[in-house]
Amino acid sequence: MKLITILKKYKRLIRLGIPLTIPLAIYLFIYLPIHKQIKNIASEHKKYSEIVKELGISSASAVTAPTFNRQILELEKTFFLSDAESLDSISRFCYDLGLELVAINPLKKEKIIDKEKKPLTLGKKSIYRLGFKISLQGNFTMLMKFLEEVDKGEKFLILNNFTIGKIAPLDPTSDSLKLDLELEAFVLG
Fold it and tell me: Which neighbouring-strand residues pair with 165?
């Protein structure tokens, strides 16, 4: 009863207050979160602009500068030069560690594009992302050494997903494990 009498008493104030709370709610729940995202994007853009300036990419004369060419050559060393080189590198890791390479299945190869839908290039070569699934067999130590080699290798390899399991789960004397993983390599083409 009291609530109804209070509502009737302040009816005009409530009618006036509701339209004022809508802009306040829009400001608090829509504008402020979006504004924070815009600030974050602006700071990232500023950071990347500074990196581009550091590398000398923005000036026309920097492209012919020897330091820029040296930086491009250093960066090229982190990419594979062909699909075959990336697969050869993986199989060489396996051979060196004594792992059994059961299978390699290619997933996809796609050209990497920037936010303006232009292909990313390094020098005059496009950059491709090559994904594949690998199955390996070996003991725990060898499999962990393989993952360490993938992590600390000089070429870009990204480990997206992996599962590890015992080959013979009912045999307590067996230490053989199977490792299934998805990798991505970056190839210049």
Answer: 178
